[in-house]
Design goal:
The complex is a heterodimer of chains A (338) and B (260). With 338 residues, chain A is mainly alpha-helical. Chain A contains 13 helices and two strands, in the order ββααααααααααααα. In chain A, strands 1-2 form a two-stranded antiparallel sheet. Chain B folds into two domains: 153 residues, Rossmann fold, CATH 3.40.50; 68 residues, no CATH class. The radius of gyration of chain B is 18 Å and the shape is globular. Chain B contains nine helices and twelve strands. In chain B, helix 4 packs antiparallel against helix 5 and helix 5 runs parallel beside helix 6. The chains are: A mainly alpha (338), B alpha/beta (260). At the A-B interface, strand 2, helix 8 and helix 9 of A face helix 2 and strand 6 of B. Chain A: Keywords: Cell membrane, Membrane, Transmembrane, Transmembrane helix, Transport. Chain A: Belongs to the binding-protein-dependent transport system permease family. FecCD subfamily. Chain A: It comes from Leisingera aquaemixtae.
């Protein structure tokens, strides 16, 4: 069931299933955010929260809610959405669910770039992450290209690149002065520990700037998922579109990695979850963004619920995402498509 | 040879990196005709069709659509005049027939103009013409080979172009479905006046359905014309190295090849 909204000559289509999935994901996000606000080493009740929001809370409650928890949640949501979008875009464009930026080394490239920028300039993490992710993407795609993109070559090259770049990132951390190094080590495991409003604002500003581009790309991206021959036959500028989608995906990956570190498996799992919720062969970018945000927020909340230690959220996304990767790999082997 | 045809190859050389497949080929696709391109394996049939549809780059020479080199025209404007169905195309899982056919409207759409009334009408017409209206809500993977191929043809029809190119549309179909599909193509050619050109493996089917044939050998046109002129013992011997007798098809009178 699809509704068409018309205004003069303009028309936009909305499918009922996509709307329904979107509303469900929104409700889940809201519930997860409420849970995240209340849990932690200093639990806050609903009454205390209401008091703080009305300006009546104690100093410590104010500080915990406004300076720690809310910005951390905002950063988790933004980073998760960016991961989900990037994953769904690359998976759709490359017609391969394994071709997610975290599986094939783009996340690791972004973290290397960010660390190199910190070493060289003392800041500029986002610019460094964009450059790093772009270089990793160019490297992996060039190495695995042979008359088109062979899925087996892509996944093996990507995993190799991912391992190499992760090791390089560890090396780079050792070059950073000890004061910032400990923060960077936590960040490098995929953690939202001590994110402030600045981090949250950066990732959300990036998403807001990219939103019109993504909305524009969403339409041809669905057609790019068919064949190069079909897409060209339908009059789409295939090479230009690929470049635009890859560019947007790389910036999204860099935004997310800058905010949350190279959080594994969110970009990888968000797309398939979204496509299951919104069937019909569509890229389902909005649903993927919501699924990514939900995964990241839940992982970070789970990490904060373990008492006594400061666990990175990456531990939980890996625990849930890695089995999905294994299952998908086995399915590909069985079908002989790898 | 009519050099007024809308779609032509002029002195065209093309191929894959390093290995030229077409060698200074000149040919025209007659307007309003049903053209079959035939020839032995690796003679350049598909390359010719794909280069004529700007899916592959032209080396020397050019593919001409409406008097201008097709590779230098806007791809979107070409897609409103020429539709191509490549060999065994792939679609994402879960795509329904209607959604697939609707994608044929891409050259008329954008993010802001997603679904006009003309789009809806064109999709309904394409489904009707291919007899797929009853299957519109089914996902592609639930269809039989013949139905799936008709769905793809409906997508190309929804583009509402004057020219339709088909690359081996009968591959993987059994004989009854090959005949059904070619009858559909013939009906489209006659009833909607579309110019159709297709690559076909089966010479007898090509001779029966085509109004014009182009026989290729080693990347060049060996001969072209109506089936009665192209399907001769001499041509089959030279092009396919096939000793044979040609008899008139007892049902349709078209030339029929009996291999010796």
């Amino acid at each position: 069931m699809t509704w068409t909204l018309r205004f003069a000559a303009l028309s936009v289509q909305i499918s009922r299933r996509a709307l329904l999935a979107g509303l469900c994901l929104m409700a889940l996000l809201l519930a997860a955010a409420l849970l995240a606000v209340q849990t932690g080493s200093y639990p806050l009740s609903s009454g205390q929260m209401a008091a703080v929001l009305q300006g009546r809370g104690t100093g410590i409650e104010q500080m915990i809610l406004l300076d720690h928890r809310l910005p951390r949640i905002a950063a988790a949501l933004g980073a998760g959405a960016a991961f989900g979008l990037a994953g769904a875009m690359f998976q759709t464009m490359l017609r391969n669910p394994l071709a997610a930026p975290d599986v094939i080394g783009f996340n690791a490239g972004a973290s290397c770039g960010a660390l190199a920028a910190v070493i060289l300039t003392g800041g500029m993490m986002l610019a460094g992450a964009i450059a790093g992710a772009a270089l990793a993407a160019a490297l992996v795609l060039l190495l695995s290209w042979k008359d088109g993109l062979a899925p087996g070559r892509l996944i093996l090259t990507g995993i190799g690149a991912s391992l190499t770049l992760t090791a390089a990132a560890d090396l780079l951390v050792s070059r950073i002065d000890p004061q910032t190094a400990s923060d960077m080590v936590t960040w490098l495991t995929g953690s939202l520990h001590s994110r402030g409003w600045g981090d949250a604002a950066r990732v959300w500003a990036g998403l807001a700037l990219l939103a019109p581009v993504l909305w524009r790309l969403h339409f041809p991206l669905a057609r790019l998922a068919m064949d190069d021959g079909i897409a060209t036959g339908l009059g789409l500028p295939v090479s230009g579109l690929r470049l635009a989608v890859a560019g947007a995906g790389i910036v999204l990956t860099a935004l997310a990695v800058t905010a949350a570190g190279p959080l594994p498996f969110v970009a990888f799992a968000a797309g398939p979850i979204a496509r299951r919720l919104v069937p019909g062969g569509k890229p389902a970018l909005l649903a993927a963004a919501a699924a990514g945000a939900l995964m990241t927020l839940l992982a970070d909340t789970a990490a904060r619920m373990v008492p006594g230690v400061q666990l990175p959220a990456g531990v939980f996304t890996a625990l849930t995402g890695a089995p999905v990767l294994l299952w998908l790999l086995l399915a590909h082997f069985r079908k002989g498509t790898l | 040879m009519p050099d007024t045809a809308r779609l032509r190859a002029e002195d065209l050389s093309a191929g894959y990196a390093g290995t030229p497949v077409l060698d200074s080929l000149t040919a025209a696709i007659p307007d309003g005709g049903l053209t079959a391109i035939v020839g032995p394996y690796a003679c350049g049939k598909s390359t010719l069709l794909r280069t004529l549809a700007r899916l592959q780059p032209a080396g020397r020479g050019q593919a001409v659509l409406d008097g201008k080199a097709i590779h230098r025209q806007s791809s979107r404007s070409v897609a409103r005049r020429l539709a191509i169905l490549p060999q065994t195309p792939a679609a994402p899982e879960g795509l329904t027939v209607r959604d697939l056919v609707a994608r044929g409207r891409t050259p008329y759409q954008s993010a802001l103009w997603q679904w006009s009334r003309q789009d809806a009408a064109a999709v309904a017409r394409a489904l009707e013409l291919t007899n797929m209206t009853g299957h519109a809500r089914r996902p592609l993977e639930a269809l039989s080979g013949g139905q799936r191929q008709r769905a793809w043809i409906a997508m190309a029809l929804a583009q509402e172009t004057g020219i339709l190119l088909l690359d081996e549309p009968t591959t993987y179909l059994d004989l009854p479905h090959q005949i059904e599909l070619l009858k559909l193509v013939q009906r489209l050619n006659r009833e909607t006046g579309r110019t159709v050109a297709m690559v076909l493996h089966d010479i007898n089917l090509a001779a029966r359905f085509a109004s014009h044939m182009i026989a290729l050998k080693d990347g060049r046109v060996f001969c072209q014309g109506p089936p009665a002129e192209v399907i001769t013992e001499a041509v089959l011997h030279s092009v396919f190295q096939l000793p044979c007798r040609i008899i008139p098809d007892p049902l349709h009178g078209t030339p029929h090849v009996i291999p010796a």
